[in-house]
Write a structure and sequence with these properties.
Blueprint (H helix, E strand, L loop, with lengths): L3 E6 L4 H12 L5 E7 L5 H8 L4 E3 L8 H14 L4 E4 L8 H6 L4 E5 L11 H8 L3 E8 L9 E8 L6 H24 L3 E4 L2 E4 L1
Helix pairs in contact: 1-6, 5-6
Bound molecules: 5-O-phosphono-beta-D-ribofuranosylamine (GRF).
5-O-phosphono-beta-D-ribofuranosylamine binds next to helix 1, strand 5 and helix 6.
């Protein structure tokens, strides 16, 4: 696989920044062809601009259906000849239109040890449930939410004093280290899918 990433964001973009930094350091052998946000003014867009990466804003509200929005995303990703799509805090559920266009070539990062605590507010769910370990997961995206084959995970302890915010901060540190590593593994063809298992060769 060649090495052009498309990064989809909705907000802060700290994972985008971690990817940019890993590229800059030479730890991730890739380029970002485009950063697309579905939210205009998302802080992550400024991070991309600062790194001279092309950006686009495509608001889901401008499209009549999830599929129509995904067609527009697809068109923009193709325009930049993107090989691998990285969801980095992208707060939209993808339709089969996009998932099937990039089979096993869409990654997501989720702030829990999947399959625990899918969906929104994973860190709040973890604290409320009283788990002693949580963490983050990078997985390939399939047609179900937070579900596809797991590429890498990193665990953190949940302390008695933790609230959603302190746990999120500790997990986020792990996210920033984990995501570039997982991207590199996929780009190097080292992630072999066997059923729902992703074996690292
Ligand atoms: C991260 O916690 C990520 O795991 C989740 O959304 C958050 C995005 O944060 N999917 P950021 O925009 O990358 O800072």
């Amino acid at each position: 696989m060649s090495r052009t990433l498309g990064v989809l964001i909705s907000g802060r973009g700290s994972n985008l920044q971690a990817i940019l930094d890993a590229i800059e350091r030479g730890d991730l052998d890739a380029r970002i062809g485009v950063v697309i946000s579905n939210v205009s003014g998302a802080a992550g867009l400024a991070r991309a601009e600062k790194a001279s990466v092309p950006t686009a804003v495509l608001s889901h509200q401008d499209y009549g259906s999830r599929e129509a929005f995904d067609e527009a995303l697809l068109e923009r990703l193709d325009e930049s000849e993107v090989d691998l799509v990285c969801l980095a805090g992208f707060m939209r559920i993808l339709s089969p239109v996009l998932v099937r266009a990039f089979p096993n070539r869409i990654l997501n990062i989720h702030p829990s040890l999947l399959p625990a605590f899918t969906g929104l507010h994973a860190q709040r769910q973890a604290v409320a449930h009283g788990v002693k370990l949580s963490g983050c997961t990078v997985h390939l995206v399939d047609e179900e939410l937070d579900h596809g084959p797991i590429v890498l995970q990193s665990a953190v302890h949940v302390d008695d004093q933790d609230d959603e915010d302190t746990l999120a901060a500790r997990i986020l540190e792990q996210e920033h280290a984990l995501y570039p590593k997982a991207i590199q593994l996929v780009l190097d063809g080292r992630v072999v899918i066997e059923g729902r298992r992703a074996r690292i060769s």
